[in-house]
Design goal:
Layout: H1 3-12, E1 16-22, E2 28-33, H2 35-39, H3 42-55, E3 63-67, H4 71-82, E4 85-92, E5 95-98, E6 109-117, H5 121-132, E7 136-145, E8 160-166, E9 171-172, H6 178-181
Parallel strand pairs: 3-4, 3-6, 6-7, 7-8
Antiparallel strand pairs: 1-2, 2-9, 4-5
Helix pairs in contact: 3-4
Length: about 200
């Protein structure tokens, strides 16, 4: 899919929001990607996740994992398309962990999937889980890279990362946010509390 086509889908579904937002990372921004509003449509979910599945179709993948909550739909659809077992990590007491009897076997090659990446904190936490259980991170795929392509995950052994849409979306530390300085009300639309 071309970048402008992906952006059009986000706009048509009302998933690209303008305003004043606090991101999960704690940073502020004037734009927010609410992937859930796109992924509620199976045809969009299938098409966007096909880009990720296609990018890793030639890679040995034994398992797909995603961080809850946003990455679950992406991981499940990518796993379906690759016909691979799919699990998710979730927070308990602020820390990301595997629950519900999920496990990663020693030597399993794991694809990490996420919906939106700004700083990549949740993805890095999932990497830690994979490696602690003896798995190997085969790659990371996500729908939106808000960093304009500057985020680089610590991948080794030929593993790579792939984003369906890459945009350079401005973010601000709370103490340097022009929207705060103007008194624009802020919202926190993410699925977990910020720092």
């Amino acid at each position: 899919m071309k970048q402008d086509e992906v952006l059009r889908i986000f706009k048509e579904t009302g998933a690209l929001l303008d305003g004043h937002f606090q991101l999960t990372s704690g940073l502020h921004s004037d734009q927010y990607f609410q992937c859930a509003k796109v992924l509620q449509y199976p045809r969009h979910s299938e098409a966007l996740c096909a880009e990720i599945a296609g990018a890793f179709s030639g890679t040995q993948i034994d398992l797909v994992i995603a961080p809850a909550l946003g990455g679950i739909v992406v991981g499940q659809e990518v796993g379906r398309q690759l016909d691979r077992r799919t699990i998710f990590a979730e927070r308990k007491g602020g820390a990301m962990e595997l629950r519900r009897g999920f496990s990663i076997g020693p030597g399993e090659s794991v694809l990490v999937c996420e919906d939106v990446v700004t700083t990549g904190g949740s993805v890095l936490e999932v990497f830690d889980i994979v490696r602690a259980m003896g798995g190997t991170v085969a790659g990371v795929g996500f729908i939106v890279d808000r960093s304009g392509g500057t985020i680089r995950f610590p991948l080794g052994g030929g593993a790579r990362q792939f984003a369906v849409l890459t945009m350079d979306v401005l973010t601000y530390s709370p103490d340097r946010c022009p929207l705060c300085a103007e008194g624009v009300p802020i919202t926190k639309p993410g699925s977990r509390p910020g720092p």
